[in-house]
Each structure stands twice: as C-alpha cells, then as structure tokens.
Amino acid sequence: MPSAIVLHEAGPAGNLIFEPVIVARPQPGEIRIRHTAVGVNFHDIYVRSGLYHTLALPGIPGIEGVGIITEVGRGVEHLNIGDRVAYIHRGYGAYSEERVLPAAEAILIPEGIDDAVVAATLLKGLTAWVLLHEVYAVQAGDWVLVHAATGGVGTLLSQWASHLGARVIGTVGSDHKMELARGQGCEYVIQYRREDFVARVHEITRGEGVHVAYDAVGKDTFMGSLACLGPCGHLANFGQASGPVPPFDVAALFPKSNSLSRPSVFLHLRTTQKLHTAVAALFNMLGDRILRPEHITTFDLAHAAQAHRELESRSRLGSVILTVRTQ
C-alpha cells in the first residue's frame, strides 16, 4: 500500500505524518502516477500552519509534483503509461508516493530536464513568468527590485529579468548570499540586515526608484518596497514569508501614481492556452540553461516536516523538494 504525508490538524511541522493511504483506480479522464519528486512551497506552509484554510482535514498537502504514469483512465488518449509528467493541482494531494490526477492537468516533460529540476521550478518558474510578463511586462533597461534574491522564486526572477535586459537589484539576508546573487543576474545586491535597502535603492537608481518591486517577504518589507518605487512604479506582493501585510491605505499609492497587485499564478494561467504558453517558455529557458536552479535541497517524502522547517528558516538557498523512493 502506498504512503503519503497526511495533515490531521493544522499547526507545527511535526503535524505532518507519514502513513499508508488508499489510492483509487483512475476514473474516466484521469491518470494514476507514481511520484518521483514533489515541490515544496510557502503555500504548503501556510496551509499546514492554518493561515490558509483551503485543505479539508485530514488531507494530503502539496500542489505540484513530478512522476511516471502507471495507469490511464478511459477516454485519455494524449497520455500513455510510462510518460513522465509534471503538474500543478489546486486540489492538493502531492505529498504522496502515488496519486490519481485529472489527465488535463498533466504536463509532459521534455527530454533533458531532470525530475528534480522540474519539481524545484515548475510553480516557481511559472510564478516568475507571470510576474515578468503579465503582472508587469519587464523591458530592457527597467530597474527591477527582487527581494530574497537567492530564494526559489527570487533566483528565477533575477536570472529571467536579467535575460530580458533589466537592471536587477537583489536583496539578501546574509553576506555569503551576496556573491551568489551577483552570479545569477543581480547587478546590485543589498544586504538588508545591515543596510537600509530603501536608501540604497534610491542611491543606486540616482533617485529614480524602480519600475517594479517583487516582494514575497510581506510584512517586513512591504512599506519599504513601496518607498522604492519610482513614478508609476508597480509593487507585486506575491508572498508573506515574514507574515501578512497589515491593512493598507490605498491613498498611499497616489503621490507617485503607483500601483499594487497581489497576483495568483492560478488565475493568470487559468486558460489552457495561457498555461501552455508559460510552460513552453519555462521549459525553453531551462533547456537553454538561462534559468539555472543550482541550489536544490532534497528531503525524503517521509521527512516532509524537516523540509518545512528548512523552508521556514529562510536561511537556505534556492528551492526545497521532496524525493520519492522507487518501490
């Protein structure tokens, strides 16, 4: 019998329990897959902690995974047993050895891209695509501020924005991350624990401010990010690693005619056509080594609690994934 991580009650990481589960046969339009790797995201932490109440308990967390198709339901003609696929599924269930999934959500993985790389970059890379092309269309010469520049999304944002010709300013929380950030496309790097990043951004841009600020930190950086914007600049708040942003007076946007968004990758990619466009762009960037997720921390599926603690520490580089042993 396959096993999965089951959350019976919201709370600390220790509430993630590895236990046997029953996996049904695929119904028409569904596939059954055996996972090889599973992505770990801050969304998972928000669900586990109880900040988000979007998973019915007891339930299996996780919204993205990579695996091999082991069974195909009736009516599925574009996929076959043995195909290597990835997915993002808002219905959760990824923290498992095996699962059933709607066939329409499966994405075929091109040859030459490793399962671990896909698990580490699918949701994060699609998030980067949405932020750089949909939320604010970055142009060559734009000043771009990326917080947590050596984190999972931050790494991809920095590399991709630099490739587009933007001038990227990255913030990091320790000295040893500064050189790493420079190596992935940040023209300037600010160690925000010992520098006032707002003052430094205005110094770097000679008072212009940035065209766009990408902020997944939340409470600790939100007002500072807003202060870094130039006239008509945009702030994309797409996470809250330091906690939720307090209530905000929209009139604060008026003096510089700024704009603010809290984007959802699922809504931006809600159509099949848009999703396929973004996935193709991501896989091309990975295949061409323009995007290089060089720091991937792996944990066995049974040790999901440790993976959550690692992500919550905000001290790691790059992405965290879970790997599933071959039966």
Descriptive notes:
By secondary structure, the chain is of the alpha/beta class. The chain has 2 domains: 3-109 and 295-323, Medium-chain alcohol dehydrogenases, catalytic domain (Quinone Oxidoreductase, Chain A, domain 1); 123-266, Rossmann fold (3-Layer(aba) Sandwich). 29% of the residues lie in helices and 26% in strands. The protein contains 9 helices and 15 strands. Helix 2 (115-135) packs across helix 8 and helix 5 (197-204) runs parallel beside helix 6. The protein is globular, with a radius of gyration of 20 Å.
In short:
The chain is of the alpha/beta class and 327 residues long. The chain has helices at 42-49, 115-135, 152-163, 176-183, 197-204, 222-228, 265-268, 272-287, 304-313; strands at residues 3-7, 16-20, 30-40, 64-72, 84-88, 98-102, 107-108, 143-146, 167-172, 186-191, 210-215, 229-237, 259-261, 296-300, 319-323.
